[in-house]
Amino acid sequence: MSSTDISLHNDVHSGHDEHHDDHHDQSFIEKYIFSQDHKVIAKQFLFAGIFWAIIGGTLSSLFRMQLGFPEATFTFLEPLLGKWVEGGKLDPNFYLALVTMHGTIMVFFVLTAGLSGTFSNFLIPLQLGARDMASGFMNMLSFWFFFIASIIMFYSLFLETGPAAGGWTVYPPLSALPQAIPGSGAGMTLWLVSMAIFIVSQLLGGVNYITTVINLRTRGMSMAKMPLTIWAFFLTAVLGLLAFPVLFSAALLLIFDRSFGTSFFLSDIYVAGEALTHTGGSPILFQHLFWFLGHPEVYIVILPTFGIVSEVISTCARKPIFGYRAMIGSMLGIALLSFVVWAHHMFVSGMNPFLGSVFMFLTLIIAVPSAVKVFNWIATIWRGNINFTPAMLYSIAFVSLFISGGVTGIILGNSALDIQLHDTYFVVAHFHLVMGSAAFFGMFAGVYHWFPKMFGRMMDEKLGYVHFWITFICAYLIFMPMHYMGIAGFPRRYYTWTGFDTFSTFLDMNSFITIAAIVVFVGQFIFLFNFFYSIFRGRRATENPWKSNTLEWTTPVNPGHGNWPGPLPVVYRWPYDYSKPGAQEDFIPQNVPFSQTASSNLPHERDFE
Amino acid sequence: MSQTTTFEQPKTGTWDGGNEPFKASYGKLMMWFFLLSDAFTFGAFLTTYGLARHRHRSFEEAQALLPEAQRLQEFEFSTQWWPIPEKVFNAFPGFHGVDWPLAFVALMTMILILSSVTMVLAVEAGHRMDKKDVQKWLLWTILFGSMFLGCQAWEWTHFIAGDETGMTLADGSKIYGANLIVNQYGPPLFADLFFFITGFHGTHVLSGVVLLILIFINTVNGVYHRRGHYEMVEKVGLYWHFVDLVWVFVFTFFYLV
Question: Membrane-spanning residues where (chain B) (predicted)?
Fold first, then answer.
């Protein structure tokens, strides 16, 4: 630390900049709690995301135990879960709540807020050469709105009637009628309130990311010189900005249906022999509104990891990313298409088959930009000088999972095949591979890769490898068998399935999946240990441990408020000049002008010398 | 540090960084993107309205299905068909029992459009750094905005209370006025959507008036004059025009078609 301290202080005293002097005067609360520094807010999102991931993972382990060992009694859970486990058997309503909350937490709180919140916040200003986000205050509000939403959702876990239990898609009428199941009572109300606040948080974050990318790029950082991470975060923010308000509308309308007697999503309906006053509404409308968000949402989850993985693969393969512009184009294509495919989630809702075939057509087109990306990643690795860092392993595994899960997407996108496969474990396997595991792997890649810049220390590589192989092998062990069960028609969300002769042959397979799921869950504690241990005791990092080109590695080891002690860096070249023939080193950072690299300049670059 | 000493300059085109490509500050851009997002919220509500409207028969369609002898000559309210807006919104404050279709809502729309005009004048005065004029036009805008809200309050009151004709139900009982569950004017969804959408728009107008009052206070205190620009007035102006524009759509959907 001493050497970096000296260089930091030298810069401070020769400084020409007003930002960095004041960070010594901040109180603890300003610096670590109500901070407006994008790096601190990013870490707040990361810690919150890790907290939620532990909860979400615990919930999945619990319902996997029920599915894997349907005859067993789990009396040891009684002290923890109280009346949700009676005589060692999970309460069926509790099972539904577990599945619902697992989905909600993982999709929204971990892979949306935890992922975008962490990496968009951390990397956008650092990689663009900006002092901070456009509005630090709104950025802070974004986290604290998320925090309030988190508290409400967390509180709902402890309600006597349990949290929301109508599935993470909260389809009415089940979710709209408090008398339908216990989970549609107070738990559902809190779910909706929490999500409404969550959307406000996303909006505050999203306008900030977009505006920062447009207005705060440093000199020379044109759109075509931005790292792919920034493109990915930018498009993610645009998707969130346009898709989340529609969920907001749907949530508000559902709140009115539930609490104020309106009939937006409810038609004539009887519950327990009692006719309700609702009339004239349409539950299918909710599905349309929900999936208008819901489908872009899966790209909100996966796009940031596209960026992270592109960056890590290029850096660790020591090769320029293959097809930089094609990568941007395919992300734009995916972002655009994501808004016109939502009804492929609703093929069996009774929609007109012609309309279904339109959505099928549009859905299958997404395979094209997705394949472009996969080919480009593979072509980048091809004959690269690969450093197998944990981040690189996670990125390569990401590509693997994305292919495995993407191929089944083509199957599910066909409306005729979907009739057989809808609501089976095939769907569960598909989206857990392509957006669940893949997004998690991208997130892990990001944490391992940018940990040195976040905390000034390195994570332990050996523990990283152990964590990686456990996670990677188990991800396939869990989700591969689910495809077979799904093709056989094994339905998702069922609490008991042993009553059906057709499915009893899957007893061993279900037990196997459960064991793998519990192993991978336990394996994550290796990561947690590595993460927290390395924050305090990890090997000290250098400024640019991966020999990377992007601007964040030109900051001091522990960047202060304002990121660069001196003036902002200036950008001359794209971020992927790795292993350029004729260059002295195998990387040329973005802020190195062409006049200093005469030996490696290509003919058309001589003009810039 | 890796700060490179260099004699050359990076490119300086519109999109080459280090500037504002849309010639707009981050605050203005944020307002634009927020409005884009808000447009999707309203879009979802209006889609809901369109779908609900489509699922119910109009008066003519319902009549065409009946045998000739049972057809009604005159429109009357029934849960069997979507009401004709001109028959619902035909009252005017102070004139009991008149049938002036859409007269009052036309007045409301005029007031809101006038408030947009005064908002434009306030923004223009801000460009000239004319504090007195900014104050004057902001005050007019606040006045028109509040008048709109007052009109809406009257319209809601009238809609909720109903009139003496009411609606006769199948069992012979009568209902008057509307709330979220029963509706004198037609299917309950008509009232649900009326309350929800005009209410959501009204909330936006109310927030706009609050924002206008805040920037009016700041203007009077000379905050923007000392700052050297009246950009905050412009930003609130963008919001105000958006709320106006949304009203045009709400008006078209609810009252005209």
Answer: 29-52, 102-125, 137-157, 193-217, 238-256
Closest CA to A445 of A457, A430, A459, A429: A459
Q: Is residue A363 part of a domain?
A: yes
**Is A139 an interface residue toward B (CB < 8 Å)?**
no
Distances (CA, A) of A212 to A174, A205, A237, A336, A592: 41, 11, 11, 21, 23
Q: How many Cβ atoms sit within 10 Å of the Cβ of residue B235?
A: 20
**How far, in Å, CA of B228 to CA of B133, rounded?**
16
Q: Specify burial of residue A148 (Cβ count, 10 A radius: 0-12, 13-18, 19+).
A: middle
Phi, psi of B136 (to 5 degrees): -60, -50
Judge contact between A286 and A301, C-beta under 8 A. no
- Distance in angstroms between the alpha carbons of the first and the last residue of chain A: 37
Nearest CA in chain A to B4: A592
The C-alpha atoms of residue A517 and residue A545 are separated, in whole angstroms, by: 34
Q: Token pair 């709209």 is at which residue? A: A176
* Cβ pair A109, A150 in contact under 8 A: yes
Report d(CA A507, CA A193) in Å as an integer: 39
CATH at A475? 1.20.210.10
Query: Under a CB-based contact definition with an 8 Å cutoff, are residues A217 and A129 in contact?
Result: yes
CA distance linking residue A216 with residue A119, whole number of Å: 17
Helix H or strand E segment including B175? strand B174-175
Read off the pLDDT of residues B42-83 as tens digits, 9 standing for 90 and up: 999 999 999 999 999 999 899 999 898 888 888 888 888 999
For residue A97, what is the enclosing H or E element? helix A92-104
Domain count along chain A: 1
User: B26-256, what's its fold?
Assistant: Four Helix Bundle (Hemerythrin (Met), subunit A) (1.20.120)
Rounded distance between C-alpha atoms, residue A425 and residue A411, angstroms: 14
For residue A216, give the chain B residue with the closest CA. B18
Q: How far is CA A192 from CA A186, B66, B230, in A?
A: 10, 43, 39
Q: CB–CB of A249/A256 below 8 Å?
A: no
Token pair belonging to A372:
């472009």
- How far is the C-alpha of A275 from the C-alpha of A256, rounded, in Å? 19
Closest by Cα among A439, A394, A397, A417 to A483: A417
Nearest to B29 among A206, A215, A248 (CB): A215
User: Residue A370's domain spans which residues?
Assistant: 37-269+276-571
What is the distance between the alpha carbons of residues B137 and B213, in angstroms, rounded to a whole number? 12
Using an 8 Å CB-CB cutoff, list chain B residues near A550.
none
Contact B44 A292 (CB under 8 A): yes
pTM of the model: 0.93
d(CA B58, CA A419): 36
Residues A36-84: tens digit of each pLDDT: 999 999 999 999 999 999 999 999 999 999 999 998 999 999 988 988 9
CA-derived radius of gyration, chain A: 25
CB contact under 8 A, A220 and B180: no
Tell me whether residue A588 is in a domain.
Answer: no
Residue A489 lies in a domain: yes
Q: For residue B183, what are the β-bridge partners?
A: B178
Can you tell me the distance from the alpha carbon of A492 to that of A169, in angstroms, rounded to the nearest whole number? 14
Domain extents in chain B: 26-256
Q: How far apart are CA A326 and CA B214, in angstroms?
A: 48
Contact yes or no for A219 and B187 at CB 8 A: no
Q: Which residues contact A254 (CB under 8 A, 6 or more apart)?
A: A170, A172, A175, A176, A192, A264, A265, A286
Question: Using 50, 70 and 90 to split pLDDT, how confident is the model at A24?
Answer: low
